[in-house]
Design goal:
The complex is a heterodimer of chains A (165) and B (177). Chain A is mainly alpha-helical. Helices cover 75% and strands 0% of the residues of chain A. The radius of gyration of chain A is 44 Å and the shape is elongated. Chain B has 177 residues and is mainly alpha-helical. Classes of the chains: A mainly alpha (165), B mainly alpha (177). At the A-B interface, helix 1, helix 3 and helix 4 of A face helix 2, helix 3, helix 6, helix 7 and helix 9 of B.
Amino acid sequence: MNCKQFQRSMSAWIDGETDSRFSDAIESHLAVCPACRRAAEKLRTLRGLVRAPATVPLPERFAEAVMYEVRSRFQRQADSSDLWRWWQELALPARAGIAVAALLLMCVGAFMGTSLTPDYGSPKTAARTTTSDVAASMAQPLGEPGIETPAGAYLALTNINERNR
Amino acid sequence: MNTDEELMRRTAAGDLNAFNEIVLRHQQTAWRLASRFLDNPHDAQDIEQEAFVRIFEAAPRYRPTASFTTYLYRIVLRLCMDTARKKRPVACENIEDLACPLPDAARGLEERRRDRDVRAAIQRLPKRQRSAILLKEYCELSYVEIAQILSTSTKSVERLLARAREALQKDLKRFYK
């Protein structure tokens, strides 16, 4: 064993990762080489330095936080897998029927959303409606549509729009 | 006492209590590694939580080819390296500000400065050397175990550790008499 060989394997020797024959050779070399002894001592000091800083303590209730996250993900997985299992168990015609029904419902919803919305007039005609028009419609005699009810208010506004045209 | 492998098998079958036992058993070891690697307790907490959640999600696919701690350390280190890659390096002057107050706040100023410098020197190491030195010095693993975690050979671990120590010795030479 010479100094170069020792320096190459010093780190593994300090970690106790060299076999016993090699370790014996290192110790024999150290007994006669003060420079390598100093190098080995420096490495031991370094180990002490590296290990010295205290570890920051683990946050309190850490395991609880982990388990909360795990439980919520587990629940989400279970929910999605239940729905998926239900869908998988359906026969193909049933799945097709559900898909068509969902499509139809969407079409009906879209149609109702556009055709059943009351026409409050274009911004242009709406701008011509004045507060005096509304006051006049409120002053209508009984028996004529007034704005006491929502339907009456709608009819009154329609009349105002008619007159503005 | 149940083995980790047995607990993982029960976790895969949906037993949350088994997984809770795994978390309680290994939270300290994973914390030691993550907090040392990142030197930022907030990031370390997020990383460790994510590591356990990933282990839970992967439980049905878990095969005990190595020890559970090797598996855990590998996941923690991978997440740490990803986080370190995305983040800008921390200027060593700021490291003390980032770290949480240590339990023994009354320790001498000199000692705290020394610890700060050691932590900063470890942070300056390349990621694989840093991983190897942390796994050796704080987790006290053998070269074979470190090689499994870093997916490399024991010879390569020996070289990584030798280079890391050489760099640390240069960086911390002011502490040698």
